[in-house]
Amino acid sequence: MMLIGIDPHKSTHTATAVDPETNRDHASIRIDVTLQDYQRLLDWARQWPERRWAVENARGLGHHLTSWLLARDEQVVDVAPSATARVRQLSRGAGRKNDRIDAAAAACVAALQGDARPVKPEGSTDALALLDERRSNLAQSRVRAVNQLHALLRALLPGGAPRDLSAAKAEQLLDTVVPAGSAELTRHTLAADLIAEIRTWDVKLKDNTKAMAALVAESESRLTDTPGIGAVTAARLLGRTGNPTRFATASAFAQYAGTAPIEIASAGRARHRLSRRGDRQLNAALHTVAITQIRMPGTRGHTYYQAKLAEGKTPREAQRCLKRRLADHVWRTMIGDERRRTRTTGPGGQPGATTASSAADPTPTADSSDKSLPGPAEPEPTRPHQAA
């Protein structure tokens, strides 16, 4: 199999074909970053029927070419720039650098050093991440329009408008106003325009929710079986997490989500403080689930929260403990979903996550029958930190 290394730049890409057995440079080509040249690159590579692409920084400058190749059923691996730099330093020439050498170095790393990571085609989780980002932008635009409408209605109506303002309610209030003078007439016209904009945002948000629900159903995720996780929250959890197997343990996922407390030393004794690290959007999604379960008597989350209060923790501390448990549960559920998809479609994804526990392995078993939360009196598969 021929390895084709890619050194990507903003306007050009350089490809070098390297034989992994002899480590010999066979040929090289330089293309512009255009769809026409992408096709020229693929036509050039077809002289080797068995080939694999090694793209340096496939999630950065090489992302577009990587996605284009994956969509055409090509095998692609990602090579970190630091790995190619090591190859150049260890090769002859005292670290000399040009695009052809960089491309060959990427292929060498993929073939010999084991630093390359397989890249999977974009799937439903990538689409959910796009929809989640779009939803955030739509929600921000709607909030901005509502705030502007509130300011106008405050000047047109005695007492202003209620805080939970909808387009229909705002239109009813605006109909009661008979503007007098150019200033009031302008405010009235602008308020009517903002009401129309809010209706537009509402329609787009509903369409966004339907698209999210369809993709979550298509992914066959069992996150929505958990109380407090609907289609929108599941879409954010899946989209922000990506491939869950990149987290070796539930603790690694909790740290990424910012729900794992940080241990600090104070006056000779160990304490924990709230973590401000991690993905804040993912953290906010887990916070929403925790608050929802706390308000739902009969759920395991509510029972766990009450047990923590009985232990003497403050409401905020008990809430943090619940978020930590929810992070474990969400990770297990996503791992279980990924394992079922792997059984159906064959092996894929990145290695490193263990889905079966052993006596010496702290990684919890990712079982689809996992309960919403471990009860306070049940043995725990992991050792989460206590919240401060």
Automatic annotation (TrEMBL):
Location of region: Disordered: 332-388
A Pfam family reported for this protein in Swiss-Prot or TrEMBL: Transposase_20
Compositionally biased region (Low complexity): 352-367
Domain Transposase IS116/IS110/IS902 C-terminal per the UniProt entry, residue ranges: 221-306
InterPro entries with a match to the protein in the record: Transp_IS110-like_N (IPR002525), Transpos_IS110 (IPR047650), Transposase_20 (IPR003346)
Residue ranges of domain Transposase IS110-like N-terminal in the record: 4-158
Identification of the protein by name: IS110 family transposase
